[in-house]
Amino acid sequence: MSNGIRAAVIGGTGYTGGEVCRLLLGHPGVTEILPASRHQESFDRTHPNLLGSGLRFHDADEVTAAASELDVVFLCTPSGEAMRRAPELLKAGARVIDLSADFRFTDPQAYRAAYGTEHTAPELLPEAVYGVTEFHRDLLPDARLVANPGCYVITALLGLEPLLSAGFADPSAPLHIAAVNGTTGAGVKPRTEILHAEVFGSMLPYSLQGHRHAPELEDRLSGPAGGPVTVDLSTAHGPFARGIHIQASVRVREELREEISREVLLTRYTERYGTGAEGEYFVRVNAEPQLGGLTDKDYRRYPGVAGVVGSNFCHIGVDYDARRGIAKVVSVSDNLVKGAAGSAVQNMNVMLGHDETTGLRTYGL
């Protein structure tokens, strides 16, 4: 291996693959980037924001065959493709970070229930490290295979884990999560419904019959909750290109309702994540004081998507509806950075012995 990081990005034509390339281009430790695709167009034509970067597309099968010369391979492919490629890549000695859903469940039956297909590499599921760096940092240095979470899931997990692990939530009540994703979350394949003329000034609800990320959230939140949880996940695309906005309503245990307040919640969240850059660098808790009266619209008390676009940060705000005993959590991130490519590079940094913020310290636009 060379002194620098040699990285491949298989599935380099989509929004996520392009974003991985963008972040790797700005990483001081990366010396070679091999985006791979079966796409016929040039790299510059596919990703005009990276015009002149010097990158070009390589054949995905040729990159896979040369995996012994690579340090890390990012799989930005549709579900089903990563489980086909990962065994050969790992056998060759490359570290693999999968940004699809293929290795997010430890149980192949859970994967089948969520995605409707059989898992073809179930022997790899037990060793895959779930890639929320903030929660599984200690497992990453020895990991061969990392399963990067999806954008809805990582934003919701970061927003809800402190509340659940503190034992504040009523275990008998569902966790209600309303999530709005930018239109890049729908992928690059053209569809009339996500054209600018259709989405601008509107909202596009989808998968209300049961979103495929709900089982993943239930699986991952059951640990901090100390038992099974039910997630009621409602999703929509909003009239913006990138970003995730999550609002969660969590019923508080009856015996704790008189004790809980916004201040108590903020104390819990800052204990978990720290304040500012102290603690978890990429998770920032909005602790702006309440201004005005009970019915005043104090917008700055909660984070907004615009504050995180282009960054690897997740901003979190909390409040408490004392009359109904419901804790409210607002969690926002850029779906292409913290929700995908940024968290993948963050995981790569820890896996390969770099400071985990390397190449990722840019604030929101």
Model description:
Keywords: Amino-acid biosynthesis, Arginine biosynthesis, Cytoplasm, NADP, Oxidoreductase. Pathway: Amino-acid biosynthesis; L-arginine biosynthesis; N(2)-acetyl-L-ornithine from L-glutamate: step 3/4. Its EC number is 1.2.1.38. Helix content is about 30%, strand content about 20%. With about 375 residues, it is α/β, with parallel strands linked by helices. The protein folds into two domains: about 5-125, 3-Layer(aba) Sandwich (Rossmann fold), CATH 3.40.50; about 150-335, Dihydrodipicolinate Reductase, domain 2 (2-Layer Sandwich). α4 links the parallel β3 (about 70-75) and β4 (about 95-100). The radius of gyration is 20 Å and the shape is globular.
User: What is the CATH class name of the largest domain?
Assistant: Alpha Beta
| Fraction of residues in helix | 25-40%
Low-confidence stretches: none
How many domains? The number is: 2
**Annotated CATH architecture of the largest domain:** 2-Layer Sandwich
Q: What structural category do the secondary elements indicate?
A: alpha/beta
Termini Cα gap: 36 Å
CATH superfamily of the largest domain: Dihydrodipicolinate Reductase, domain 2
- The pLDDT mean sits at 95
* Count of alpha and pi helical runs: 11
Principal-axis shape: globular
- CATH topology tier name of the largest domain: Dihydrodipicolinate Reductase, domain 2
Kindly estimate the percentage of residues that lie in beta strands according to DSSP: 15-25%
> What pattern of helices and strands is seen along the backbone?
EHEHHEHEHEHEHEHEHEEHEEEH
The major β-sheet equals: 7 strands, mixed
What's the total count of β strands?
Answer: 13
Strand order of the largest sheet: 8-9-7-10-13-12-11
Radius of gyration, whole Å? 20 Å
